[in-house]
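#onboarding

Welcome to the new folks! Below is a worked example of what a typical request in this channel looks like: someone posts a single protein sequence, and someone else replies with the predicted structure as tokens. Don't worry about understanding the tokens yet, we'll cover that in week two.

Example request:
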Amino acid sequence: MPAATPGTPSLLRAMNDRAALELLLTHGPLSRTRIGHLTGLSKPTASQLLARLEAAGLVVATGTDGGRPGPSAQLYTLNSRAAHVGGLDVTPERVLAAVADVTGTVIGSFALPYTEGADAVGQVTTALGGAVEAAGLTTADLHRLVIATPGAFDPRSGRLRYASHLPGWHSPTLLDELAAALPMPVEYENDVNLAAVAEQRLGAARGHEDFVLLWNEDGLGAALVLGGRLHRGWTGGAGEVGFLPVPGHPLVRQVTRANSGGYQELAGAQVLPALAAGHGIETPGGGADGPDGGEVAVAVALLERAAAAPDGPYPGFLRSYATLLATGLASLVSVLDPEIVVLSGAVITAGGEPLRALLETELAELAPSRPRLVTGQVLERPVLRGALESALAATREEVFDTSR
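Example response:
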């Protein structure tokens, strides 16, 4: 179909179609009259629009609004089967995969634990295969896949950087091998960046154009959103704040070889047991009950206990940890001057409102700007949710464009 030109009937129809689809996505089932009211279209034009979208397989009739006075009106909703996307969250311990329909509803998921010697292509195809099977689909049914990893793939070389701890993902031919193994378009994104996408679309950063997301789980990281867009940097390494040299810890040299840096060594999850001991707090046992077991589980348990205890040694422990976190965060805030800072990741969110308030107070002492600190609202697998939201945004741009 020839491209529509500005002001032509085909372009106006496509714009109206897209507006109606977005309304159905936001509000759920709507009647023809309600769609006409929300879009400003006449009843005949709204009827033509719905007939066009129904013929295109984008909307379906679903029930009536029979609970209201007067004749019942036919309701229309998005056809959830119009498109499907996949998302993967890759860590050294496991690969989580999920499939969502065009409405954003997750209809299948699969968790693949890491096994020694597993290659990246095999991990991806196995995990994704498990998720699409759980959804009753095949990989050929997916319009797009977004894969989240620690670090980032350098756009110039195609090699994964800043994530030497991710086994099997550093081959120079990996992206070509994955493209050959997968039938759909594939995008790759840093895991913390995708947590920010989830917060921007669904959570605490909705309506904000400039924000920083500070992540603390199995590593310290940040996502930078400037003017509403992710800032990735020249090699994809923007936000790798764990490598920041900071006061309070000796300089870490050869940081890429160590896969660590000053801020990580100062305020990462691994420092919590010693910090607690310094305040006379006994460290609970670790284990597999936490988000990833081990250090993260212990850190989460300590901070949850401290957040719930109004007295004793716990307030001092939280204040000390807030100072450590603020030491590195002050550098980001001083340079970027964001509107808000979203606190995310299991370790930070375990401290709850007490840690957030203390961190905001400490940051006000160390940085000239005064961003509002907010706790992330996407708590259920935020990285995976961000991967799905990223895939959905691109897919809806394609599927909802009826001028194609």
